[in-house]
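Table 4 source record.
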Amino acid sequence: MRIAVIGTGRAGTSFARALGAVGHQVQLLSHDDLERMDSPEVILLCVPDDEIGNVARAIAPRSDFVLCHVAGSRTLDVLKGHVRVGSLHPLMTLPSGDVGAQRLIGATYCVSGDEAVVRIVESLQGRVITLRDEQRMLYHATATAASNHLVALMGHVQRLAESAGLRLEDFLDLSRRALEDVALMGPERALTGPASRGDVETIDAHLSAIPEEERSTYVALAHAAFELAERRSSTIA
């Protein structure tokens, strides 16, 4: 399949390399080089979410190609005016072109629109999920929590570790094991620690010990842990 990937950032580079690796004819272009597109069958917009509509409007609608985007937060409405449209959002982090290309093969994709999108995912050996439009924003918020917020949490851990004279690396194995427990038994059963035990005095002592600028983050997470523990208790009861 002839595919023009528009956008030379991490997402665009990742998709271009992954699609090329599985046999597609790929042309990687910036959004300023649309006139250089060489008769693609699919145009894949890998531009910032807020720019998708602008780039789509800069492309003349035709029936001989499918215009797609890879944004998890947008429906097909952002491509209105085009004859054939689709979207494929990977549930995967793409930190660089090389790493992202490897991760896109075999990833899970939320897809909608033209059947060509499903064929692209199949060529990447991917798993397909579909959603109604009204589910889309909650889906994307969930994906953000699962990846971006997890990274932000580890930034919090790093700052606490450094305040104690330690390193983030000293705590990474603990984090890995906790995620393994979640995968094995679910969040409620995997929860351990003072919130799991209802140990309020320990949490108060934590708050006295940690840097003031990190307390609001710790409090928010402690509340979430208490709520998780309460759900576990109500389930057992």
